[in-house]
Design a protein that fits this description.
The protein is mainly β and 133 residues long. The protein has two domains: 56 residues, no CATH class; 69 residues, SH3 type barrels (Roll). It is 0% helix and 41% strand. The protein is built from no helices and eleven strands. The protein has a six-stranded antiparallel β-sheet with strand order 4-3-2-1-5-6, with no helix packed on it. The protein has a three-stranded antiparallel β-sheet with strand order 8-7-11, with no helix packed on it.
């Protein structure tokens, strides 16, 4: 079973944080930052105390889900990452995004990619220039 977690860009300083996604009834979006095992009990955060440094408001448009794979440098791959992929003796750039047709994360739904041939080179929120090549 793959780990379910998210990444988002913090509202206050623009840094990315990883963890569990928290949506409020007011529409605010937060990430409960790892490690959170001391906060959660039986999967319900109401049983613990959350410190100010454990929960971060994030920009909604920058949220991406962890796809359950790592690249050749052992970095976690998230939705929105820009990848350099070596496939069938060719190299190309791809964006990780959800694909409703194949019910998976593109480009991994169409191609059997070995993580040793995939490298994160940026993300669509900070490195749009990589897509112009």
């Amino acid at each position: 079973m793959r780990e379910i977690k998210f990444r988002g860009k913090k509202v206050d300083n623009g840094q990315f944080v990883n963890g569990q996604l928290v949506l409020t009834v007011d529409g605010d979006v937060y990430i409960l930052v790892e490690p959170y095992s001391d906060v959660c009990d039986r999967g319900d955060i109401s049983y613990g105390t959350i410190g100010a440094d454990q929960i971060c408001e994030v920009v909604k448009e920058t949220i991406g889900q962890y796809i359950g794979s790592k690249d050749k440098n052992d970095k976690e791959i998230y939705e929105g990452d820009i990848l350099k992929i070596n496939f069938a003796e060719r190299e190309f750039i791809g964006i990780v995004k959800w694909d409703n047709t194949y019910l998976g994360f593109h480009p991994f739904t169409k191609y059997p990619l070995d993580p040793d041939h995939v490298e994160i080179i940026g993300n669509i929120y900070e490195n749009e220039d990589l897509l112009e090549e």
